[in-house]
Design brief:
This protein is mainly beta. The chain is 0% helix and 60% strand. The chain has one domain. A five-stranded antiparallel sheet has the order 1-2-3-4-5, with no helix packed on it.
Length: 50
């Protein structure tokens, strides 16, 4: 996965072109966005604190 950072160098998300996935982690919660072959998106939210 490639790290995407903002202008201050803070990690914003991680993206993977091959699997068409974007992963965003904020305060123990992870949101994974997957782009499907039919042009739709699948969004999954994971609570890392559990």
């Amino acid at each position: 996965m490639q790290e995407i950072r903002n202008s201050r160098g803070k990690l914003v998300c991680r993206a993977d072109r091959k699997s068409k996935t974007v992963e965003i982690a904020v305060k123990g919660n992870v949101t994974v966005i997957r782009f499907t072959s039919d042009g739709k998106m699948k969004v999954t939210n994971i609570d890392k604190a559990a």
